[in-house]
Amino acid sequence: MSTFHGLEMAKRALAAQQAALYTTGHNISNANTDGYTRQRVNLETLPAYPAASRNAPKIAGQLGQGVEAASVERIRDSFLDSQYRTENGTANYWETKSNALRQIEGIFNEPSDSGLATVMNKFWQSLQDLSVNPDNAGVQAVVVERGETVAETFNHLIKNLNGIQSNLEKEIDGAVKEANALLNHLSTLNTKIKELEFTGQTPNDLYDNRDKLIDELSGFIDVKALGLENSESINIVYEDNEIKVNGNTIDEKSGSIQALLDTYQDNNDYLQEVKDLASSFANEFNDIIQVETGEGSINFFEFNNDELQVSDETSNVSAFILNRDKLNQFKTFNQYEQFIGRIGIDTQEANRMTEYTNTLKTQIENQRMSISSVSLDEEMTNMIKFQHAYNAAARSMTAMDEMLDRIINNMGIVGR
């Protein structure tokens, strides 16, 4: 055993406690840094001396060789990370869909004094008045006027739903670009991480940056099966109303991009149903009423190029002939009420799921933060602990130094 064994052991202790103090300081410095994970130095006992061998010295027993800082690790739970990303994607999906459905619901504005249901009811009332006074020019004019209001309301709905469709397309394109920007950043980061790992380093701060990027990406798209921790080339493409990641179709109900895609399809269905209602309304009503003009019979409504109009010839009407039996069987009102009811149910479901998934996400985030975030109280306690250990190691080194000084400078001087 070397004479300097104690000195070397004290030096190792100083280095280990110093590393622990530096790491504690790093934690305190980043206490308010978004995405930072607290770190911990793992201290390990060095193998005792002597090791088992045929020529091992005969001493009273193995002597310890001190401590070393074996590694610096992040305090993080990968299971909670996975859970958080799943719930973050689900919460973003329902929140995005809820916001879009509320916009669609606002277009219909039901129930209200200006909604289609009220407009159609007023038109229905004018038809009832016409059935009582079929030859009254004033009543006929009211029917025409309210019919035009119905047509304008249908056209307003179709126009606004088309506008929603265009906006959703722009939002999808924007979200895909934003997600691809995050993926490009992630690819660059993965390259840096691999370069450092190759040299045997543990780039904890880069790991934090990567986890933060993946957390953000989970809000856009389902990230569970993408292998983002290792990939250097992932790209999202939007085509044929589908999202494809490196050629694979992603259709999980997760992330804002999929929510926009699903809402785009829902809105397309709503739009088509409104068009079908307008067309059905025109056809049914034209069977109910026969419009006579000076030039012969005409249809009251015309539905062409996704636009409902009252025929221009109604200004020359000479008589309205009602089929009262068909009037009493008029179904379009009921169809519209059922349609509005379905939109309301879809919106309520999205709102309910938004509240539920956000609650789950918050709970998991709190659990994750309780493990990974910096506690200043704990770090201050660690600082005092490591400082005392450092001071003790320094005192040990001083004692070893005094012993060596005695041996080197004060032994063997008798008789000089």
Protein architecture, described:
This protein is mainly α and 416 residues long. It folds into two domains: 5-75 and 378-410; 82-364, no CATH class. The chain is 63% helix and 12% strand. It is built from nine helices and ten strands. It has helices spanning 5-29, 78-108, 116-132, 137-198, 204-218, 256-288, 324-328, 332-372, 376-410; strands spanning 39-45, 67-74, 236-239, 242-245, 248-250, 289-293, 296-298, 301-304, 307-310, 317-322. The protein has a three-stranded antiparallel β-sheet, covered by helices on one side. The protein has a three-stranded antiparallel β-sheet with strand order 7-6-10. A hairpin with a 2-residue loop joins β8 and β9 (307-310). The model has no long low-confidence stretch (mean pLDDT 87).
Present the secondary structure layout:
Blueprint: H1 5-29, E1 39-45, E2 67-74, H2 78-108, H3 116-132, H4 137-198, H5 204-218, E3 236-239, E4 242-245, E5 248-250, H6 256-288, E6 289-293, E7 296-298, E8 301-304, E9 307-310, E10 317-322, H7 324-328, H8 332-372, H9 376-410
Antiparallel strand pairs: 1-2, 3-4, 4-5, 6-7, 6-10, 8-9
